[in-house]
UniProtKB/TrEMBL annotation:
It comes from Streptomyces cavourensis. This is Acyl-CoA/acyl-ACP dehydrogenase. It comes from the Bacteria. Keywords: FAD, Flavoprotein, Oxidoreductase. The lineage of its organism: Bacteria, Bacillati, Actinomycetota, Actinomycetes, Kitasatosporales.
Amino acid sequence: MRYLQRERTIVETLLPGLDELLAASSLTELEAVGGPGVKLFTEAGGPGLLVPSEHGGKGADLLTAVRVQRALGSRSPSLAVATTMHHFSVASLVEAAATSSGLEWMLLAAIAKDNLLLASGFAEGRTGQGILNPALTARTDGDKVFLSGSKKPCSLARSMNLLTASLPLPGPDGTEQLAIALIPADSPGVSVKPFWGSPILAGAESDEVVLDDVEVPPELLVRTDVTADGRLDQLQTVGFVWFEALMTASYLGAVSALVERILLNQRADPAVQADAVAAVEAAVLALEGLAADTASGISQDTLARSLMCRYAAQDTIGRVLSVTLEALGGMAFIGSPDVAYLNSACRALAFHPPSRARMAAPLAEYFAGHAPLRIP
């Protein structure tokens, strides 16, 4: 069986024609600002991938979604990263709909029917700030809630239909708790400004989204039990597990693109080829094992394991990049921008939250049994 054949077959089954269209475009074209990847994904029905089938979606579980993201990452790292942010938001809505009597199911049906894209306005792009800390400020006027501030970078900034954002709202006892808001992209006061200055992952549309006293419809507010200390409730835990798993799969897809190139290089040392495949597949198998286990539920232990998979994948990617670049040789580097581009793009997994350094103490405390897992 050819390398990545399983993953690309799954994409063809769920999103017919997408892989072929991505393969027909050059990596340079797909990764550029305004590249065709997001549009092709949307037209193939990608926004509804995780929406349950009873709401009109594809009903993909985490294992299937991991394989889809790896396939997309092998064609366009920018597309995989951008769509991970969409899927993260959808997975959170699915979890909310399962335990709520609100209107989340109507939103899910609309996402699948109308191919709506969700951007994430959480605080994960702010240096030195915890991922759970709201990136926007909220103002209340009676029952009305208004948001101001900006999120940068914000993937899918140019193509989004809805922005998901976190905000603090008083809980039943007056303590501030995290709420999730969904804001239509065409709401008065929403604007997008250029922000992303690097050519790496430019196709993810990671620009700045600005909110100027934007009113949030009450039916588009989802309250959580998360307070300022960063302890995770079930909704957040599920969202983080999906985020870490799908983002890891996306970058494993990107490094798989280099492995695929070395397998097709007849001059490459077979020992190096086999070593590169083995290293990536080991990381993939660990991630797929985690994804398969989520069928029986997601807990703090699942989140801790997802972080271990992600950090292990970072190490694997670094090692595989070294051996593949050397094996491909200088002529491959000189003859096409793809090799140098993938080398840079693959390393960006380390930039996504939460960083290994920030999570060192919380994970050590958790595995030692001293404290619940926190995301600082």
